[in-house]
Amino acid sequence: MNPMVDMAFLLVSFFMLTTTFKTEEPVAITLPASQSEVKLPESDIMVITLAEDGRIFFGIDSKHQRVRLLQLMSQEYDVPFTEAQVQAFSLVSTFGVSIQALPDYLDLPPSERKSVIQPGIPLSDSLQNELYDWIVLARMVNPNLRVAINGDATTKYPKVKRVLNTLQLARVNRFNLITNLEQES
Amino acid sequence: MAQVADYQENLKRDHRQPSESPEVDMNPMVDLAFLLLTFFMLATTFAQPQSMELLMPADDPEAEQQLEQPIKESHALTLVLADKDQIIWYRGITDPVVNRTTYARDGLRQLLSQTYAEVPELVVLVKPHEESTYANLVDILDELAQSELPRYALADLTQEDRNIIAPTLETI
Question: What's phi and psi for A4, nearest 5 deg?
Answer without folding.
Answer: -65, -45
